[in-house]
Design brief:
- This protein is an alpha+beta fold.
- Among the domains are: 132 residues, Acyl-CoA dehydrogenase/oxidase, N-terminal domain (Butyryl-Coa Dehydrogenase, subunit A, domain 1, Orthogonal Bundle), CATH 1.10.540.10; 123 residues, Butyryl-CoA Dehydrogenase, subunit A, domain 2; 136 residues.
- Helices cover 56% and strands 12% of the residues.
- The strands form three sheets. Strands 3, 4, 5, 6, 7, 10 and 11 form a seven-stranded mixed β-sheet that branches.
- Helix 9 packs across helix 17, helix 13 runs antiparallel to helix 14 and helix 14 runs antiparallel to helix 16.
- The two termini are 45 Å apart.
- It binds flavin-adenine dinucleotide (FAD).
């Protein structure tokens, strides 16, 4: 039976030893001292490991069922949802005025990683609600905020995002769902949306759908798209629930993973919708939700890697196969545990060094979101915008790869459902696809984000790396293991950026053929930077006589592994980028 141990110790290390959150001037951070964050994370971790994790296999095997238009969630989900609500977790970082706890976003990320690691499918009901609430918060009228936000913050009403249609997922300008204005200021929404996560279920009194649709007569393509609030039950003036709206779930999809989350075909038959934000500026409003969701999906990549790794590690310590090449390590037993073998170590170190680097990256990104939202820091806002596709694309690709490595440690047993490893790989797989498939994230990074605001944000990123290297140039303990590899990798990234600048205009295919490699190159440099920061924090802790020597020494060794064995991937990515588009585009479509 797989188990989940909340990574509280590691989170505390990143929050306090690396990011030093309570010493920064970001509004709301002064309260986040180690005792406070530890209390929050312990409580969230208990819920994750004791309530949500045991339901993960149940959700996978039982799945959701559509009965008479109502989706039944797996056994135990409703009760667990009530516990999550009772703890106030859905509104952890939403404003107090709407019933939230107003903690910084970084705390929501740490808690979210635990919940997602324990049970991704379950956590999505709450995650999408959070995203929808954020969009209403950013773009809603005062009346809309007052009507929806208190109930959504509490998750009495959950939320969804409706973009995808049968003939379009990436190219949303092709959308056909229409919104016809009515005399009372509302709109009649008609069309079909597919693949809608948490679209229908039995855990909430109401479901608030955020739906993209086109108002007839508006501009063509994506410029004519607006965003609407479409409640499952209409809401009366006094806040009570009224008539059932013209939206229904036509079908739930059979799919590869996240079986506990209902993926629905949603039919809108003249459903009443209310404009959210400005007319024809729907993508702008939806991006509030999508950007948040992209960070959340990046987190899912990390979270699935973590739980898969935890179980693979336990198996590697337990399973006896073969002898260590350097002599028996378990001489009284029939064989040594798997963990003695270098190739198993390689796999475990790949996983561990990714997970810990990714956690630091995600928490650092969340800190930037707080600096941007709470601190009104424009540079942080630009950096978040630049790094969002990297967080989404790199962490989900790598996160999935790590679940496969973890599965491999189980040999044949990894392929057998009983052991649970297949579920992690299946659940992690979707994160590479939804919220914009990873190829599209790479496109966004190279096609839009690099040149955004005259390339200011990518220059600021390089400056951050340069400043760190300069500030620590006399640090002998860091130089060979951390600083030199980071410097080399950052140079590869700059060279790749230069290649796009020199070639992108005259040959756009050259830039786009290298975009996926660039996203990974960028991701490795980000994790390399995080590891350099963590290496520094560990040396300081060891120098100051830490009481947790084993933790800091293991962390340093893991960082050295990343810098020596994973970071050199930047060279390969650079070589591919610099080879341009010739070999990629050499065949005509019918030569394949
Ligand atoms: C389980 C599940 C849950 C989902 N939940 C939601 C949800 O809650 N709400 C919602 O609205 N949608 C949801 N989706 C839909 C998901 O976001 C889309 O499937 C995804 O964005 C891709 O769209 P598509 O499937 O139409 O693929 P397409 O757009 O047809 O793309 C196919 C492939 O081509 C690539 N591609 C497309 N255009 C380009 C280009 N210009 N350059 C290079 N490559 C390109 C893509 O990267 C992709 O790999 C969900 C999907 C699934 C499977």
């Amino acid at each position: 039976m797989p188990s989940y141990t909340p990574p509280t110790r590691d989170m505390q290390f990143v929050l306090h030893d690396v990011l030093r959150i309570s010493q920064t001037d970001t509004p709301g951070y002064a309260e986040l001292d180690p005792e406070f964050t530890s209390a929050v994370l312990d409580e969230a971790g208990r819920l994750a490991s004791e309530v949500l994790a045991p339901l993960n296999t149940v959700g996978d095997t039982e799945g959701c069922r559509l009965e008479n238009g109502v989706v039944r969630t797996p056994e135990g989900f409703r009760e667990a949802f009530e516990q999550v609500k009772a703890g106030g977790w859905p509104g952890i970082d939403l404003p107090e005025e709407f019933g939230g706890q107003n903690m910084p976003y970084i705390m929501g990320t740490a808690v979210g990683e635990m919940f997602s690691g324990a049970n991704q499918a379950f956590t999505m009901y709450q995650g999408l609600t959070h995203g929808a609430a954020s969009a209403i918060l950013a773009h809603g009228t005062d009346a809309q905020k007052a009507t929806y936000l208190p109930r959504m913050t509490a998750c009495d009403w959950t939320g969804t995002m409706n973009l995808t249609e049968p003939h379009c997922g990436t190219d949303l300008g092709l959308m056909r769902t229409k919104a016809e204005p009515r005399d009372d200021g509302s709109y009649a929404i008609t069309g079909q949306k597919i693949f809608i996560s948490s679209g229908e279920h039995d855990m909430a009194e109401n479901i608030i759908h955020l739906v993209l649709a086109k108002i007839p007569g508006g501009p063509e393509g994506i410029k004519g798209v607006s965003l609407f609030i479409v409640p499952k039950f209409l809401v009366n003036e006094d806040g009570s629930l009224g008539a059932r709206n013209g939206v229904s779930c036509g079908k739930i999809e059979e799919k590869m993973g996240i079986h506990g989350n209902a993926t629905c075909v949603m039919n809108y038959d003249g459903a009443t919708g209310y404009l959210l934000g400005e007319m024809h500026k729907g993508m702008r409003a939806m991006f509030t939700m999508m950007n948040e969701a992209r960070i959340g999906v990046g987190m899912q990549g990390l979270a699935q890697a973590e739980i898969a790794y935890q179980n693979a590690l336990a198996y590697a310590r337990d399973r006896l196969q073969g002898r260590a090449v350097t002599g028996a390590e378990n001489p009284d037993g029939p064989a040594d545990p798997l963990i003695v073998h270098p190739d198993i170590r390689r796999s475990l170190m790949d996983q561990k060094s990714f997970i810990e680097g990714a956690r630091a990256f995600l928490l650092c990104g969340s800190q930037m979101i707080d600096q941007s939202h709470r601190g009104k820091d424009a540079q942080a806002e630009g950096m978040v915008s630049l790094l969002t596709p990297v967080i989404k694309g790199f962490l989900t690709d790598e996160g999935f790869d790590m679940t496969i490595l973890a599965q491999q440690i189980y040999g044949g047993h990894g392929y057998i459902e009983e052991w649970g490893m297949s579920q992690y790989a299946r659940d992690a797989r979707i994160a590479m696809i939804y919220e914009g498939a990873n190829g599209v994230q790479a496109l966004d990074l190279v096609g839009r984000k690099l040149a955004q605001d005259g390339g200011k944000h990518v220059m600021a990123f390089f400056e951050t790396v340069k400043t760190f290297l300069k500030e620590n140039e006399d640090n002998e303990a860091l130089r060979a293991d951390f600083l030199d590899p980071l410097k080399a990798a950052s140079k590869d990234l700059q060279q790749a950026g230069m290649f796009f600048m020199q070639n992108g205009m005259k040959n756009p295919n050259a830039a786009l053929a290298g975009s996926y490699d660039f996203m990974h190159l960028f991701g490795h440099v980000c994790l390399g930077l995080m590891w350099a920061h963590m290496g520094k924090a560990c040396h300081e802790a060891l120098g100051n006589g830490t009481t947790d020597r084993a933790f800091h020494e293991a962390k340093l060794a893991t960082g050295r592994y990343y810098m020596a064995r994973r970071l050199p991937a930047t060279k390969m990515h650079l070589a591919r980028i610099e080879s341009g588009a010739d070999t990629v585009m050499a065949l005509t479509a019918d030569q394949f």
